[in-house]
Batch of 2 targets.
Target 1
Amino acid sequence: MEFCDLKAQYRLLKPRVDARIQAVLEHGRFILGPEVRELEERLAARVGARHCLTCASGTDALLLALMALGVGPGDEIVTTPFTFFATGEMITLLGARPVFADIDPVTYNLDPAGIEAAITPKTKAILPVNLYGQPAEMETIQSIAGRHGLPVIEDAAQSFGATYKGRPSGNLSTIGCTSFFPSKPLGCYGDGGACFTNDDALAQTMAELRNHGQIGRYLHARIGINGRLDTMQAAVLLAKLEAFDEELALRQKAAEQYTARLKDAVQTPTVPPDRTSAWAQYTIRVEERKAVEKALSEEGIPTAVHYPMPLHLQPVYAELACQMGWQRGSFPAAERAAEHVLSLPMHPYLSAEQVEEVSEAVRNAVRSAMSAR
């Protein structure tokens, strides 16, 4: 069984993927070719944003957003400690400081209740992360940001395709950032990402930043990066975009089947009624995670832990933690989640039989772990 079956997807989408790739090979415009602009236009239309700027990865999308907002040494960004490392890494890379607030223990997203206490005169932006596929409580976060005159960067790396109060993820804040890593709900065949904004000036700045700060050929107005999306990856994404809505529906169906089978055995994901999830992961919560992982592995069922160590406990942030007074126990909801979350196989082409197989294995593993206590 595959954790994310990209091969099954390719077999179904092969004619359109191959045709798109062949077109790029024929015209030979491998950097910023016509497919890049076509993709940007279609993605912007999909989320309802004025601008979409594709880039080389979801990590670069965060970097471009932070750079466009002028984040640098001495600045602070309020964000979550329970996320992939890139969220904090890009803040630190620019010489700024990530300042953490704890998560909601149910959705695993940044808890708005802790944001205000983390804001200081040095705060430059708020950066919530839409973990596992569903948006954070963006309306409340935007309200807090508005009171303090702060921009919000929506880290939508896992939630492209989801909605919040009827609005598409990616267009819920000043800048939205997403990832097209292969295992994401909409993924390419390498690294890729995008930024969305309704601000014309920010869009222009990010467009320049992703191409070495160029405003014309060999004319550079700012220090930028090589953050362009390859034309070949844009072609793959265009092919996959045609099936994206159907795949989102299939992910939702698999998630519902999982929940129906597991809700009385483990803590299953909760999606508030005012939003939808793209189901980048289907993540349960178990007390005896190591025992459950081991039992599932023995049954040939792959699992993953997203994520086993919160950012404030990462070795590289030991000095920052000392400066900020962070230690184990500082962000209890994030720490408990890191100890107990477990992601199960999730992709559009999971069969009902596979969901049943995984669910039964989880139930058996949990019962065995409980009885062995």
Note: The longest helix spans residues 6-27.
Target 2
Amino acid sequence: MIGGFQNVFKIPELKKRILFTIGLLAVYRVGVHVPTPGIDAVALASFFARAQGTLLGLFDMFSGGALTRLSVFALGIMPYISASIILQLLTVVVPHLERLSKEGEEGHKKITQYTRYGTVLLSVIQSFGISVGLESMTSPGGAAVVLHPGWSFRLMTVITLTAGTSFIMWLGEQITERGIGNGISLIIFAGIVARMPSAIGNTFRLISTGEMGIFAILIMIVLMISVVAFIIYVEQGQRRIPVQYAKRVIGRKMYGGQSTHLPLRINTSGVIPPIFASSIIMFPATIASFMKVPWMQSVASAMRPGNAAYELLYVGFIFFFCYFYTAVTFNPVDVADNMKKNGGYIPGIRPGKRTSDYIDKVLTRITLGGAIYVSAVCVLPSILITKFNVPFYFGGTALLIVVQVAMDTIAQMESHMISRHYEGFLKKGGGGRKSPF
């Protein structure tokens, strides 16, 4: 692996893509620190100190701390993610979108355009809601968060935050097209990783004050390495269903006859289930932070990480969304029909409905294992904080995103390197000279 990383910068195209990606991520991190006008930064920071464990805290994690500062990138990339998920769900129920999804590249371009429009619309709605909510916020000392409330502040906030999200969306698309890796995922990755230095600093502070011992730190490091290794192991796990293609004679040539497999990932739904589950459970705590109603305060206190009710609901929602999102994104009937059209079949299973039923049965079983795995990783932070007094969240959605994005980016780098080596081989072979390989 070390030799592979050394070879990365020996390939000019790959080196250019990596430097381009790093440059755009640096632009994103600079924008996180550009504040929106009209805000008392001290009062806002004091308010968000109480917002941990709410939906605002979750959004702040995905925005890399931009929401805490209410910078121009305060909305982060969440409107784009929400619009993408909504379009995916609508593809199942809207015939026009379903036809577009099956039209290849042109159809996907149209859906991408709809996603951009949806991102702008959601950004306008969310930024207006934030501007109205900010006008009612006060710090624990009673200082107002907004210096000059009114429609001028609301309009300025809507324009600023919507433009910021649109710019982030453009950055992500540029990274995907001209850089390395998935741009949207890398922006979320950068926001999460940027908070690690402060978490490490808090850990050393606790060691210096004697609140955490060296032995506890060593145990935590071993646990961190074990959890990351476990996530990598499971994320690469597949159930491979053997597929056999019958031989077909077209003209004077015979095609097909090869054996392959249908890979089914253990965690087909990715990080969507914990994101949805966290958003739904944290919604009462978010509403309660704005409305001082006694019964809402009691519900909000019960729906905080570490409480039994929160953890049980969290796991239940993760299971539900694992199965729901897998059913939305993977259709066994379409897979079985495509196999049948191309002369493929699963040995021992009749083509058609029997094949789709078999794939659905296998997918249901491995999704159960994936839901258990995601639940275990996501409940880990609460256990570490409540039982071992760990000073930062390790695990959950953030860790899944970091590991998955890192794995996908490394895989793309490897594919570029392999492609580059194949090009060199073909050029040498085409010139009539003997290849050294």
Note: The chain is about 70% helix and 5% strand.
